[in-house]
Amino acid sequence: MRNPAIVYVCLVVREHFITVAEEDLAFSGVSFSRAILSEILAMKLVHHFASNKIELVSVLTISWSPLAGASDDVIEDVKGILGRKDDSSVDDLQSALEVSH
How far is CA 3 from the centre of its chain? Predict the structure, then answer.
């Protein structure tokens, strides 16, 4: 079975490279090029996974957890960085459309 989560991941990586491009002007061209490449790859994968409009909607709107499969140590580190308490969840689900904003 095909896994459309890779579209979500490509768009998360795109957002990361855009952030890096804004923070490090010396390498902004390289980072921005990587962001564009990630976006192109996401578009190609959407075409691959969605052969009709229903599948397209499904690929773009399925919600994914950015921390799915992460170890407890990683989740605790993310909670610390975000300033969240132990009892609060960092498992905010997002779709590919939400990430691509």
Answer: 14
pTM of the shown model: 0.74
Q: Which domain holds residue 38?
A: 5-64
Per-residue pLDDT of the chain (101 residues; tens, 9 = 90+): 367 788 888 998 999 999 999 999 999 999 999 999 999 999 998 888 888 888 888 888 888 887 777 888 888 888 887 777 665 566 678 888 887 77
Q: How many CB atoms lie within 10 A of CB 67?
A: 15
In the chain, the number of structural domains is 1
Largest Cα separation within the chain, whole Å, is 43
Q: Which residues pair with 64 in a beta bridge?
A: 94
